[in-house]
Design goal:
The protein has 249 residues and is mainly alpha-helical. It has helices at 39-63, 70-77, 81-87, 91-106, 120-135, 138-150, 154-183, 191-212, 218-239. The two termini are 35 Å apart.
Length: 249
Protein backbone atom coordinates (compact mmCIF):
# COMPACT_ATOMS: atom_id res chain seq x y z
CA UNK A 1 0.00 0.00 0.00
CA UNK A 2 1.72 3.18 -1.15
CA UNK A 3 1.77 5.99 1.44
CA UNK A 4 -0.06 9.24 0.72
CA UNK A 5 0.92 12.38 2.54
CA UNK A 6 -1.50 13.68 5.15
CA UNK A 7 0.60 16.73 6.08
CA UNK A 8 -1.58 19.79 6.45
CA UNK A 9 -4.76 17.78 6.11
CA UNK A 10 -7.07 18.33 9.11
CA UNK A 11 -8.03 15.14 10.86
CA UNK A 12 -11.72 14.91 11.62
CA UNK A 13 -12.40 14.18 15.27
CA UNK A 14 -14.49 11.00 15.54
CA UNK A 15 -17.72 11.28 17.46
CA UNK A 16 -18.30 8.62 20.12
CA UNK A 17 -21.36 6.46 19.59
CA UNK A 18 -23.84 6.17 22.45
CA UNK A 19 -24.04 2.61 23.69
CA UNK A 20 -27.21 0.57 23.92
CA UNK A 21 -27.99 -0.27 27.56
CA UNK A 22 -28.88 -3.82 26.52
CA UNK A 23 -25.25 -4.33 25.48
CA UNK A 24 -23.87 -3.64 28.94
CA UNK A 25 -24.45 -7.23 30.01
CA UNK A 26 -21.84 -8.27 27.43
CA UNK A 27 -19.04 -6.74 29.49
CA UNK A 28 -17.22 -8.78 32.10
CA UNK A 29 -19.29 -9.28 35.30
CA UNK A 30 -17.48 -7.83 38.27
CA UNK A 31 -20.17 -7.39 40.92
CA UNK A 32 -21.05 -10.78 42.51
CA UNK A 33 -24.01 -9.22 44.35
CA UNK A 34 -25.73 -8.02 41.16
CA UNK A 35 -28.04 -11.05 41.01
CA UNK A 36 -29.30 -10.28 44.52
CA UNK A 37 -30.37 -6.73 43.71
CA UNK A 38 -33.99 -5.79 42.86
CA UNK A 39 -34.87 -4.91 39.27
CA UNK A 40 -34.83 -1.18 39.93
CA UNK A 41 -31.32 -1.44 41.39
CA UNK A 42 -30.15 -3.47 38.41
CA UNK A 43 -31.48 -0.88 35.98
CA UNK A 44 -29.83 1.87 38.00
CA UNK A 45 -26.50 0.00 37.89
CA UNK A 46 -26.79 -0.54 34.14
CA UNK A 47 -27.46 3.17 33.63
CA UNK A 48 -24.43 4.08 35.73
CA UNK A 49 -22.19 1.61 33.87
CA UNK A 50 -23.45 2.98 30.57
CA UNK A 51 -22.69 6.53 31.69
CA UNK A 52 -19.14 5.53 32.69
CA UNK A 53 -18.44 3.73 29.41
CA UNK A 54 -19.74 6.64 27.34
CA UNK A 55 -17.83 9.17 29.46
CA UNK A 56 -14.59 7.24 28.96
CA UNK A 57 -15.18 7.22 25.19
CA UNK A 58 -15.87 10.95 25.14
CA UNK A 59 -12.86 11.92 27.23
CA UNK A 60 -10.46 9.66 25.33
CA UNK A 61 -11.42 11.38 22.07
CA UNK A 62 -11.31 14.85 23.63
CA UNK A 63 -8.19 14.60 25.80
CA UNK A 64 -6.23 11.49 24.88
CA UNK A 65 -5.15 8.50 26.93
CA UNK A 66 -2.62 10.18 29.24
CA UNK A 67 -5.10 12.85 30.35
CA UNK A 68 -7.87 10.31 30.90
CA UNK A 69 -8.44 9.77 34.65
CA UNK A 70 -10.91 7.94 36.85
CA UNK A 71 -11.73 11.28 38.48
CA UNK A 72 -12.53 12.84 35.13
CA UNK A 73 -14.61 9.85 34.02
CA UNK A 74 -16.57 9.92 37.30
CA UNK A 75 -17.25 13.65 36.98
CA UNK A 76 -18.40 13.35 33.36
CA UNK A 77 -20.57 10.29 34.12
CA UNK A 78 -22.06 11.83 37.25
CA UNK A 79 -21.08 8.92 39.51
CA UNK A 80 -18.76 8.53 42.49
CA UNK A 81 -15.23 7.20 42.03
CA UNK A 82 -16.09 4.37 44.42
CA UNK A 83 -18.86 3.30 42.05
CA UNK A 84 -16.36 2.98 39.21
CA UNK A 85 -13.88 1.02 41.32
CA UNK A 86 -16.63 -1.47 42.21
CA UNK A 87 -16.68 -2.51 38.55
CA UNK A 88 -13.25 -1.69 37.11
CA UNK A 89 -9.71 -1.67 38.46
CA UNK A 90 -8.41 1.08 36.18
CA UNK A 91 -9.12 3.20 33.12
CA UNK A 92 -7.55 0.44 31.03
CA UNK A 93 -10.30 -1.96 32.12
CA UNK A 94 -12.99 0.58 31.27
CA UNK A 95 -11.52 1.11 27.81
CA UNK A 96 -11.16 -2.63 27.31
CA UNK A 97 -14.87 -3.14 28.03
CA UNK A 98 -15.61 -0.39 25.51
CA UNK A 99 -13.46 -2.23 22.99
CA UNK A 100 -15.30 -5.50 23.60
CA UNK A 101 -18.68 -3.81 23.15
CA UNK A 102 -17.90 -1.59 20.17
CA UNK A 103 -15.09 -3.50 18.46
CA UNK A 104 -16.91 -6.79 18.60
CA UNK A 105 -19.79 -5.20 16.71
CA UNK A 106 -17.74 -3.14 14.25
CA UNK A 107 -15.24 -5.84 13.28
CA UNK A 108 -17.68 -8.38 11.91
CA UNK A 109 -17.31 -10.02 8.51
CA UNK A 110 -20.00 -9.74 5.84
CA UNK A 111 -21.85 -13.03 5.87
CA UNK A 112 -21.51 -15.35 2.85
CA UNK A 113 -24.46 -17.08 1.27
CA UNK A 114 -26.08 -19.74 3.44
CA UNK A 115 -23.84 -22.80 3.69
CA UNK A 116 -21.05 -21.21 1.65
CA UNK A 117 -17.46 -20.62 2.71
CA UNK A 118 -15.96 -17.15 3.02
CA UNK A 119 -14.63 -15.72 -0.25
CA UNK A 120 -12.54 -12.78 -1.38
CA UNK A 121 -15.75 -10.75 -1.61
CA UNK A 122 -16.33 -11.06 2.15
CA UNK A 123 -12.63 -10.53 2.85
CA UNK A 124 -12.67 -7.27 0.89
CA UNK A 125 -15.71 -6.07 2.81
CA UNK A 126 -14.10 -6.97 6.13
CA UNK A 127 -10.86 -5.14 5.30
CA UNK A 128 -12.80 -2.01 4.42
CA UNK A 129 -14.61 -2.23 7.76
CA UNK A 130 -11.31 -2.76 9.56
CA UNK A 131 -9.77 0.26 7.84
CA UNK A 132 -12.75 2.46 8.76
CA UNK A 133 -12.64 1.15 12.32
CA UNK A 134 -8.96 2.02 12.78
CA UNK A 135 -9.01 5.30 10.88
CA UNK A 136 -12.35 6.86 11.80
CA UNK A 137 -14.33 4.94 14.44
CA UNK A 138 -14.08 6.13 18.08
CA UNK A 139 -13.72 2.49 19.12
CA UNK A 140 -10.69 2.35 16.86
CA UNK A 141 -9.21 5.13 18.97
CA UNK A 142 -9.72 2.91 22.01
CA UNK A 143 -7.82 0.09 20.32
CA UNK A 144 -5.03 2.48 19.33
CA UNK A 145 -4.75 3.76 22.90
CA UNK A 146 -4.58 0.25 24.35
CA UNK A 147 -2.00 -0.89 21.79
CA UNK A 148 0.17 2.10 22.67
CA UNK A 149 -0.14 1.53 26.42
CA UNK A 150 0.51 -2.19 26.00
CA UNK A 151 4.03 -1.40 24.80
CA UNK A 152 4.81 -0.11 28.31
CA UNK A 153 2.48 -2.12 30.55
CA UNK A 154 2.55 -5.92 30.65
CA UNK A 155 -0.90 -6.23 32.22
CA UNK A 156 -2.47 -4.25 29.37
CA UNK A 157 -0.51 -6.35 26.88
CA UNK A 158 -1.76 -9.59 28.43
CA UNK A 159 -5.34 -8.29 28.49
CA UNK A 160 -5.29 -7.08 24.89
CA UNK A 161 -3.12 -9.64 23.10
CA UNK A 162 -4.19 -12.62 25.18
CA UNK A 163 -7.89 -12.00 24.74
CA UNK A 164 -9.44 -9.57 22.24
CA UNK A 165 -6.71 -9.55 19.57
CA UNK A 166 -5.97 -13.25 20.01
CA UNK A 167 -9.60 -14.21 19.44
CA UNK A 168 -9.86 -11.80 16.52
CA UNK A 169 -6.73 -13.24 14.89
CA UNK A 170 -7.81 -16.86 15.30
CA UNK A 171 -11.17 -16.10 13.67
CA UNK A 172 -9.66 -14.05 10.84
CA UNK A 173 -6.96 -16.58 9.98
CA UNK A 174 -9.53 -19.33 9.54
CA UNK A 175 -11.71 -17.17 7.31
CA UNK A 176 -8.73 -16.03 5.25
CA UNK A 177 -7.78 -19.70 4.85
CA UNK A 178 -11.26 -20.38 3.44
CA UNK A 179 -10.87 -17.46 1.04
CA UNK A 180 -7.51 -18.71 -0.22
CA UNK A 181 -8.80 -22.27 -0.58
CA UNK A 182 -11.66 -20.99 -2.69
CA UNK A 183 -9.26 -19.36 -5.17
CA UNK A 184 -7.81 -22.75 -6.10
CA UNK A 185 -9.48 -25.81 -4.53
CA UNK A 186 -6.71 -28.04 -5.91
CA UNK A 187 -4.08 -26.46 -3.67
CA UNK A 188 -3.50 -27.03 0.00
CA UNK A 189 -3.70 -23.86 2.05
CA UNK A 190 -1.84 -24.12 5.35
CA UNK A 191 -2.41 -22.17 8.54
CA UNK A 192 0.94 -20.50 7.88
CA UNK A 193 -0.27 -19.36 4.44
CA UNK A 194 -3.36 -17.78 6.00
CA UNK A 195 -1.32 -16.12 8.76
CA UNK A 196 1.15 -14.64 6.26
CA UNK A 197 -1.63 -13.24 4.07
CA UNK A 198 -3.54 -11.78 7.03
CA UNK A 199 -0.37 -10.12 8.36
CA UNK A 200 0.37 -8.65 4.93
CA UNK A 201 -3.16 -7.24 4.72
CA UNK A 202 -3.49 -5.77 8.20
CA UNK A 203 0.03 -4.45 8.82
CA UNK A 204 -0.37 -1.42 6.48
CA UNK A 205 -3.71 -0.57 8.10
CA UNK A 206 -2.17 -0.53 11.56
CA UNK A 207 0.76 1.50 10.22
CA UNK A 208 -1.44 4.20 8.76
CA UNK A 209 -3.65 4.38 11.84
CA UNK A 210 -0.87 4.37 14.45
CA UNK A 211 1.90 6.27 12.65
CA UNK A 212 0.47 8.19 9.70
CA UNK A 213 -2.64 8.88 11.83
CA UNK A 214 -4.95 9.51 8.94
CA UNK A 215 -8.08 8.04 7.40
CA UNK A 216 -7.52 5.01 5.19
CA UNK A 217 -8.78 5.27 1.62
CA UNK A 218 -10.87 2.19 0.68
CA UNK A 219 -9.19 2.25 -2.74
CA UNK A 220 -5.84 1.66 -1.05
CA UNK A 221 -7.34 -1.26 0.85
CA UNK A 222 -8.53 -2.80 -2.42
CA UNK A 223 -5.14 -2.24 -4.06
CA UNK A 224 -3.38 -3.92 -1.16
CA UNK A 225 -5.70 -6.91 -1.19
CA UNK A 226 -5.26 -7.42 -4.94
CA UNK A 227 -1.47 -7.16 -4.61
CA UNK A 228 -1.27 -9.61 -1.70
CA UNK A 229 -3.48 -12.15 -3.49
CA UNK A 230 -1.34 -11.87 -6.64
CA UNK A 231 1.77 -12.50 -4.56
CA UNK A 232 0.12 -15.49 -2.90
CA UNK A 233 -0.85 -16.99 -6.28
CA UNK A 234 2.65 -16.43 -7.66
CA UNK A 235 4.25 -18.17 -4.70
CA UNK A 236 1.73 -21.02 -4.91
CA UNK A 237 2.50 -21.48 -8.63
CA UNK A 238 6.21 -21.52 -7.84
CA UNK A 239 5.83 -24.09 -5.05
CA UNK A 240 3.43 -26.38 -6.90
CA UNK A 241 0.20 -28.05 -5.77
CA UNK A 242 1.78 -29.66 -2.70
CA UNK A 243 2.81 -26.28 -1.31
CA UNK A 244 6.52 -27.18 -1.39
CA UNK A 245 9.11 -25.66 -3.67
CA UNK A 246 9.90 -27.68 -6.74
CA UNK A 247 13.59 -26.75 -6.51
CA UNK A 248 15.95 -29.23 -4.93
CA UNK A 249 13.46 -32.05 -5.00
Amino acid sequence: MSPRSTVGRPRRRPQPVRKDPSAIAATRPVDPTAAQQPATGTRRNEAARLAVLNAADDLLVERGFEALTIEGIAARAGVAKQTIYRWWKSKVDILYDNLILDGGEALTWPEPAAGAAYTVHELRGYLRRFAAFLGEDPAGRVLQALIGHAQLDSRTADLLYGNFLHDLTVRDRERVRQCLAGLDPQRTVTDEDAADVLDALLAPLYYRALLARGPIDPALVDERLDAVLRDHRDRADHNGPSGHSGHGA
